[in-house]
């Protein structure tokens, strides 16, 4: 089933509410769906074939659509690359912001953030690896925007560490390098992680959280915390 056919089929199932509002909401939803499907297929091709080895035609063929359909959402291949590269950090920032808005302790927030962000970069492994591999192919404005988001993530993590230290929850004083090392741990994770490897995803995520806590001089996770983080 092509992307156009898939979208039309889904639209027929939407009912109820004010017709005009529903139509507008549905249109935005379908536009997002189409755009995301382009990004998904492009991500796979960029990861497997490289940016230089992937054409707009190849992306269109994967989606069973025409090249003009792709161009109706992205002005060129460079714009698609930017969208792919931005996916991981955008989702990581959303998770971090959500965690920071909770009422938990600073330690709880940090543990949840590292676990959930680690989970995202594993799921978005192809996006992150593509970014690290193809960063020089990005338009300067796109590269600067994505870098700014990465800096924002590190800044928010640093502030979390700072606030947690001031509250007496972490053992060591705040240092700017702590956030950088933690950010590095997260960024490097999708480069070497393999679903077919000896370590399960949960094993790797526990290792990430443990390493993050150790970097800031915090105590190791308790069994209760481990159970809480996995929902057991």
In short:
The chain contains 11 helices and no strands. By secondary structure, the chain is an all-alpha fold.
**For the report, how would you describe the main beta sheet?**
none
CATH superfamily of the largest domain: Tetracycline Repressor, domain 2
Structural class: mainly alpha
Identify the CATH architecture of the largest domain: Orthogonal Bundle
**Percent of residues in helices:** over 70%
Please count the helical segments. 11
The overall average pLDDT, rounded, is 88
* Unreliable spans: none
Q: What string gives the helices and strands in order?
A: HHHHHHHHHHH
Strand content: under 5%
Shape: globular
The CATH topology label of the largest domain is Tetracycline Repressor, domain 2
Number of domains: 2
Query: What is Rg?
Result: 20 Å
| Number of E-type strands | 0
Task: Report the CATH C-level class of the largest domain.
Answer: Mainly Alpha
For the terminal residues, how far apart are their CA atoms?
39 Å
Describe this structure in words.
- The protein is mainly alpha-helical and 232 residues long.
- The protein has two domains: 18-71, Arc Repressor Mutant, subunit A; 85-226, Tetracycline Repressor, domain 2 (Orthogonal Bundle).
- Helix content is 74%, strand content 0%.
- It has eleven helices and no strands.
- The chain has helices spanning 3-11, 19-49, 56-63, 67-71, 77-100, 106-123, 125-134, 140-166, 176-192, 201-215, 223-230.
- Helix 5 packs parallel to helix 8 (140-166) and helix 6 (106-123) crosses helix 10.
- The chain is globular, with a radius of gyration of 20 Å.
């Amino acid at each position: 089933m092509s992307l156009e056919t898939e979208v039309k089929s889904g639209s027929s199932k939407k009912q109820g509410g004010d017709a005009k509002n529903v139509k507008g909401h549905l249109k935005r939803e379908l536009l997002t769906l189409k755009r995301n499907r382009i990004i998904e297929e492009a991500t796979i091709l960029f990861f497997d074939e490289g940016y230089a080895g992937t054409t707009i035609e190849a992306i269109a063929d994967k989606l069973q659509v025409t090249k003009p359909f792709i161009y109706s959402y992205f002005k060129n291949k460079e714009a698609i690359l930017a969208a792919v590269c931005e996916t991981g950090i955008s989702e990581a920032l959303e998770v971090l912001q959500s965690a920071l808005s909770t009422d938990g302790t600073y330690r709880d927030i940090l543990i949840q953030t590292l676990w959930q962000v680690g989970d995202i970069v594993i799921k978005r492994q192809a996006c992150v690896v593509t970014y690290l591999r193809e960063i020089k192919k990005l338009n300067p404005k796109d590269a600067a925007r994505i870098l700014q988001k990465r800096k924002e993530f590190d800044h928010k993590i640093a502030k979390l560490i700072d606030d947690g230290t001031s509250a007496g929850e972490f053992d060591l004083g705040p240092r700017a390098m702590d956030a950088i090392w933690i950010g590095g741990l997260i960024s490097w994770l999708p480069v070497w992680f393999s679903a077919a490897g000896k370590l399960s995803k949960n094993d790797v995520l526990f290792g990430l959280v443990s390493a993050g806590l150790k970097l800031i001089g915090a105590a190791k996770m308790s069994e209760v915390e481990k159970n809480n983080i996995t929902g057991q």
